[in-house]
């Protein structure tokens, strides 16, 4: 690489613009579908978090209906959610990587990136601004029209007005190039499937051809919303640990006028001059009520034998616990002075603690989920760390060792699933019932499990017969309440379904009117691509899927054998209606009688006996 | 002539059969009328229920019976088939119309009674035989014809349209097929003193050409392999009614020996029937011992030939005398000879040399 080459930093907007294929905006068909998804999912997430039963209205309208596809469409998604505060709107929709979803809990989207991508895509293809209407109080609505400055990653507001309104909610409208004639099937399927996995939402969709789809909510209660939690040890890498340490590791506070004022205030010595001895006396008395930084400053003062005036004239350069020395720059004397610390002094401990940070066990219990004091101690033994090791003393090698050990130690309890928001067996069953109207259905919610420190829950349903029109096993895939419609072939769920020997469960796989609904909930679903359409086959997830499917298959098998018996009974009843008349006919002629015997009653009786026994 | 079957006997027999069929029909009718599911009791024909009756010198069925009930949905179909066959047999017998096994199979379709294949209908026919204890020929169901007869025998037809018409069976050199008309015919007169049953059509023709009928005063019958039951019935009648001894000439192998045995004492397949055996019939050859004696060209036995020998050694009928001895020799030499083997010594060697010699011998065993 020549030194003349220029190195330019590109903005996140520009990065995504150049890599839009990754995010599902590869062509007009896929882009229209992805844009729909992103806006609908944002609306659902917003409603979920505020505990509002979602009511979402979506329209897609062609700008010039008579032109052939691909052409410009206006996509509008309106919800009854909490809205976005006026001051956040420009940043939320006008910059990439600005969002509220950075905590560790389950949500459909991770950072609200996709919506901005959709806006970016719309702007690139049509050069039209995005229209955002938002109301958080249900009284006034902010109406924005803006463009995105791609190079600067900054919104350019073209219009901002306020209007009176009667309900909260957000409406986003973009103009984009799309191909509805090709994407329409998937979009309609998406709208239908979203109600299967979000049965508490009402979704209406006016499509460009004038067709109106309305999916009413099936249930009126929402599943409990997830909580934000600390990370699990399994999900941690070296960089994350380093960041956590910086957060935890207490620095020696900068001793400036502001700090000195704070110390005075806490000691109640703000007005007059005080001698060093007075200050130390007061310090001993008030120690317990002092804040940590003040304690550190006072500990320094004790070794420097300084009062507030002296403290203002020096700058602390180093606190060397190893050699029990404090060095400082004295502005008055213009030189560096070193002072010895007495390790026996009670203030020594305070300084040592501060410089070295908390103990490893303390760090583990406080900053991670599922780690108690016992687990922390056992882990230290496993990882060959002393439990009282100060995290401030750990070097890079130690951190790598710690991170490796955290991921290999098997003693930690499974991740806390409270950050997950599964749909629940009952709502799923209702959704399946309404959606497929099957003869048989069964659902299961597995207990939480984890892969690489990320908790996940598998929910699965199976349905057979009834109104199911498809033949062969049809798989409906969902992840974090999102329907996955593309790239089915490489999905782990399909793999598990295809691996199943359906013959064992009395199901003829290629002709059975059967449906499998699979829902993976996780703080991080391991998608194979950024487009979020297929789930990678992590062994832990595959195993849970398999167990869920086996459980349901056994239930189906029970149903199938009952069904088989009923069919057999029917077949038998048919046999009697077929053969008894023949028997009657032959025996009449053989015996020389003129009239046939009265056997018809027997056929009816026979059928009713069969019905009773089944 | 011991006991010649008269027209009256035959009429009575037919009447009995018709009454029996009617009785079964009436029982089914009555059951239905009473709201009960009709059933048939069928003598069990499985191997475990077939025993050898030393007194009768044939296989007979034991006392085990199985129930075929229309109540049981898995038996309803075969019950209906059986009743239909009884109905059809009644029609045939009444109208004196003959039918073949194959014809029965096809006729069923006209009555909406379905058989999977002819094998299934053949089985039901055997079931009816067992229920009635009468051979199917009695209710006018015959095998496809492959067996034939030649010689000085005058018969009188009883089938409709030919009643009273007589025929001498030496008038046509190809012989006469043993079909329904032959089986039901009256045996009127014969000059023959012997019946020779021969396994193969080829040799049968040769025997006619060589005038074996005249030279040995015999009636020649081609059994066409294992003798069909109509042929066995005719053999029995020639023996019982016309007082003719029966000798059997087969290939020199284990199957030939068994063909002779079946004519003599019946088959396991027909253990449910009596009146098909000729216990006095004699197996003239070709014996295993003849192979060496007459220096016949041979071919080696196959694995299955040898296995068949050992199987038959366990059969109660093969426990003594000629039957056991020959079987053991076959096992020893592991070779067999066809009837045609005699051609090595000239085409008429078998009729000129072998036959007289064996006929002479046969008088002494």
Account of the protein in words:
By secondary structure, chain A is of the alpha+beta class. Chain A folds into 5 domains: 12-215, 2-Layer Sandwich (Heat Shock Protein 90), CATH 3.30.565; 233-248 and 358-408, Helicase, Ruva Protein, domain 3; 257-356, no CATH class; 418-560, Ribosomal Protein S5, domain 2 (2-Layer Sandwich), CATH 3.30.230.10; 564-613, no CATH class. Chain A is 41% helix and 20% strand. Chain A has 18 helices and 17 strands. In chain A, the strands form 3 sheets. Chain A has an 8-stranded mixed sheet with strand order 5-4-3-6-2-1-7-8. In chain A, strands 12, 13, 14, 15, 16 and 17 form a 6-stranded mixed sheet that branches. Chain A has a 3-stranded antiparallel sheet with strand order 9-10-11. In chain A, helix 2 (28-50) runs parallel beside helix 5 (180-197). Chain A is elongated. The termini of chain A are far apart. The mean pLDDT of chain A is 84. Chain B is built from 13 helices and 17 strands. The two termini of chain B are 22 Å apart. Helix content of chain B is 43%, strand content 17%. Chain B has 2 domains: 7-142, Winged helix-like DNA-binding domain superfamily/Winged helix DNA-binding domain (Arc Repressor Mutant, subunit A, Orthogonal Bundle); 190-362, Dna Topoisomerase Vi A Subunit, Chain: A, domain 2, CATH 3.40.1360.10. Chain B is of the alpha/beta class. The A-B interface holds A 572, 575-576, 579-580, 582-584, 586-593, 597-599, 601-602, 605 and B 21-22, 24-26, 28-30, 32-33, 35, 37-38, 70, 73, 76-77, 79-80, 83-84, 86-87, 90, 111-113.
């Amino acid at each position: 690489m020549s030194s003349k080459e220029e190195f330019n930093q590109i903005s996140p907007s520009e990065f995504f613009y150049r890599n839009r294929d990754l995010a599902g905006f590869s062509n007009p068909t896929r882009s229209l579908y992805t844009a729909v998804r992103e806006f609908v999912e944002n609306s659902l997430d917003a409603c979920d978090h505020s505990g509002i039963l979602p009511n979402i209205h979506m329209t897609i309208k062609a700008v010039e209906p008579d032109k052939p596809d691909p052409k410009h469409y206006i996509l509008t998604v309106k919800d009854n959610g909490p809205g976005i505060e006026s001051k956040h709107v420009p940043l939320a929709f006008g910059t990439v990587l600005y969002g509220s979803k950075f905590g560790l809990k389950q949500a459909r989207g991770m950072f609200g990136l996709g919506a901005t991508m959709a806006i970016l895509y719309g702007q690139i293809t049509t050069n039209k601004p995005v229209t955002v209407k938002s109301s958080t109080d249900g009284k006034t609505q902010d109406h924005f029209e803006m463009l995105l400055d791609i190079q600067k990653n900054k919104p350019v507001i073209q219009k901002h007005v306020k209007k009176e309104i009667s309900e909260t909610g957000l409406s986003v409208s973009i103009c984009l190039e799309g191909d509805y004639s090709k994407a329409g099937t998937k979009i309609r399927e998406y709208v239908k499937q979203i109600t299967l996995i979000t049965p508490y939402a009402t979704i209406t969709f006016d499509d460009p051809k004038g067709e109106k789809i309305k999916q009413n909510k099936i249930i009126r209660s929402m599943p409990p919303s997830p909580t934000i939690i600390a990370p699990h040890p399994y999900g941690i890498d070296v960089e994350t640990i380093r960041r956590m340490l910086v957060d935890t590791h207490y620095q020696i506070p900068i001793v400036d006028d502001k700090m000195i004022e704070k110390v005075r205030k806490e000691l109640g010595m703000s007005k007059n001059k005080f001698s060093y001895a007075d200050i130390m006396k007061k310090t001993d008395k008030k120690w317990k009520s002092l804040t940590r930084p003040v304690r550190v400053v006072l500990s320094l003062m004790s070794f420097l034998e300084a009062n507030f005036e002296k403290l203002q004239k020096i700058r602390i350069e180093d606190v060397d616990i190893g050699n029990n020395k404090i060095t400082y720059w004295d502005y008055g004397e213009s030189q560096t002075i070193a002072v010895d610390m007495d390790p026996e002094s009670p203030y020594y401990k305070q300084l040592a603690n501060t410089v070295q940070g908390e103990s490893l066990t303390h760090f583990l219990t406080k900053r991670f989920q599922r780690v108690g004091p016992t687990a922390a101690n056992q882990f230290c033994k496993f990882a060959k760390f002393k439990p009282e090791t100060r995290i401030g003393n750990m070097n890079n090698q130690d951190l790598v060792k710690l991170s490796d050990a955290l991921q290999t130690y098997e003693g930690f309890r499974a991740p806390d699933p409270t950050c997950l928001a599964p749909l629940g067996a009952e709502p799923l069953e209702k959704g399946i019932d309404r959606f497929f109207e099957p003869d048989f259905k069964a659902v299961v919610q597995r207990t939480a499990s984890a892969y690489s420190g990320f908790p996940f829950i598998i929910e699965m349903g199976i349905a057979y017969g009834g109104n199911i029109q498809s033949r062969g096993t049809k798989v409906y895939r969902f992840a974090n309440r999102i329907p996955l419609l593309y790239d089915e072939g490489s999905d782990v769920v399909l793999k598990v379904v295809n691996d199943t020997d359906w013959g064992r469960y009395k199901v003829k796989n290629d002709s059975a009117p059967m449906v499998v609904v699979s829902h993976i909930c996780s703080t991080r679903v391991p998608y194979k691509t950024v487009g979020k359409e297929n789930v990678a086959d992590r062994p832990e997830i595959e195993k849970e899927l398999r167990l869920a499917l086996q459980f349901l298959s056994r239930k189906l098998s029970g149903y199938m054998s009952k069904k088989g018996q009923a069919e057999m009974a029917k077949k038998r009843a048919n046999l009697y209606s077929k053969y008894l008349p023949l028997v009657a006919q032959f025996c009449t002629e053989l015996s020389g009688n003129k009239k046939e015997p009265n056997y018809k009653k027997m056929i009816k009786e026979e059928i009713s006996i069969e019905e009773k026994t089944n | 002539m011991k006991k010649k079957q008269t027209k009256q006997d035959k009429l009575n027999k037919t009447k009995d059969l018709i009454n029996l069929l009617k009785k079964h029909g009436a029982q089914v009718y009555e059951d239905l009328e009473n709201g009960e599911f009709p059933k048939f009791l069928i003598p069990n024909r499985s191997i475990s229920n077939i025993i050898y009756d030393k007194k009768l010198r044939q296989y007979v069925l034991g006392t085990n019976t199985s129930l075929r009930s229309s109540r049981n949905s898995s038996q309803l179909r075969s019950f209906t088939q059986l009743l239909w066959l009884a109905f059809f047999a009644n029609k045939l017998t009444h109208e004196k119309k003959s039918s073949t096994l194959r014809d029965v199979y096809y006729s069923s379709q006209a009555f909406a009674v379905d058989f999977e294949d002819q094998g299934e209908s053949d089985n039901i026919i055997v079931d009816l035989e067992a229920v009635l204890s009468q051979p199917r020929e009695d209710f006018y169901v015959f095998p496809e014809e492959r067996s034939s007869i030649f010689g000085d025998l005058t018969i009188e037809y009883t089938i409709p349209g030919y009643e009273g018409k007589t025929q001498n069976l030496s008038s046509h050199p190809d012989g006469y097929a043993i079909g329904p008309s032959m089986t039901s015919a009256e045996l009127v007169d014969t000059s023959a003193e012997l019946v020779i049953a021969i396994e193969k059509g080829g040799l049968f023709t040769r025997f006619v050409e060589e005038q074996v009928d005249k030279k040995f005063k015999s009636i020649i019958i081609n059994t066409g392999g294992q003798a069909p039951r109509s042929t066995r019935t005719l053999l029995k009648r020639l023996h019982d009614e016309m007082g003719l001894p029966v000798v059997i000439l087969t290939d020199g192998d284990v199957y030939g020996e068994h063909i002779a045995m079946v004519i003599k004492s019946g088959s396991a397949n027909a253990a449910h029937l009596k009146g098909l055996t000729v216990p006095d019939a004699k197996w003239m050859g070709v014996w295993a011992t003849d192979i060496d004696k007459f220096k016949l060209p041979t071919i080696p036995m196959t694995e299955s030939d040898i296995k068949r020998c050992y199987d038959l050694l366990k059969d109660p009928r093969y426990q003594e005398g000629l039957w056991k001895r020959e079987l053991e020799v076959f096992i020893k030499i592991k070779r067999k000879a066809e009837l045609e083997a005699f051609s090595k010594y000239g085409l008429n060697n078998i009729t000129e040399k072998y036959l007289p010699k064996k006929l002479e011998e046969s008088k002494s065993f």
